[in-house]
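To whoever is on call:

I kicked off a structure prediction for a single chain this morning and the downstream step that reads the tokens threw a length-mismatch warning. I double-checked the sequence; it's 277 residues and nothing unusual in it as far as I can see. Pasting both halves so you can look.
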Amino acid sequence: MESQEFDFSSTRRKKSKPPSQKEPKITVKGVASLPRSDSKCFVCSIPYVRSRTPSNIIDQMWIKHRILVPSNNRCCPWHYQESGFFDEKCMAEIRKKIRNEAVLTSAEFSLWLNRLGSIAGSNRIDFEDPLLTEEDYSLITGLSKSNFSTMHTFVKKNLRDSKNRSTRNALAIFMAKIRLGVSNRFLGFLFGMSDRRVSDTITAVSKVLEDHFVPNHLGYNHLTRDEIKTNHTPSLSNALYRVADDSIVLILDGTYIYIQKPKDHQDQLDTFSMQKH
């Protein structure tokens, strides 16, 4: 009898793959959201962007604009500031892509609820927030928005942002300390920082302002005589005090330093003031 050869390979059972179970998705109507973009920037649509959108960007998009950004979306890092805000040009591109519903997996929905809880429980003052009013700036720092921004130009050039605070918040902490005279612990409560961080921030800002702001705006050397004559000596002053037109008028004020009456006659003469009598 001739032996028959069997092809056992054809009789082997192939392992059947278990049916893929897709994670159930939840559709939330009436919530502005952006489509998923795992492989391209959700702002400019440049493909193969490797940078995942930071969590603080996602938080700020919801807090300020009520727009939900999927956690895996990609975004070019040059579109946003370190504080987590987009400029108006980027926001205009983002608004073109908004949908009126959010489709989330159960895990994403859970993450979103936890994030909302963290945001709702936050009591931190943030001077990167464009919604802060003129009254807010005046109450906390004693400065207008424009004057605060002018001072900030000197700070941001010579002080870096950190994970605990931006340079704008650092200046706000320093100005609040001067304006309100409250404790570092209270400032830490307002800005969400520890006492030690507040102390380090005040020291750093003070050093920057002393080195780069004060020489340009305070003291005898920040103006020339011609600048004082041209910009700070009105003709009325010369007429009232009867000085020549090419002269300048200075009005100096000082701070009282309280001392005991000296025994020495000459010291009494040197420290005598008519305003006390």
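Update from on-call: the warning came from a stale cache, not from the record. Cleared it. Sanity check on the structure: The radius of gyration is 33 Å.
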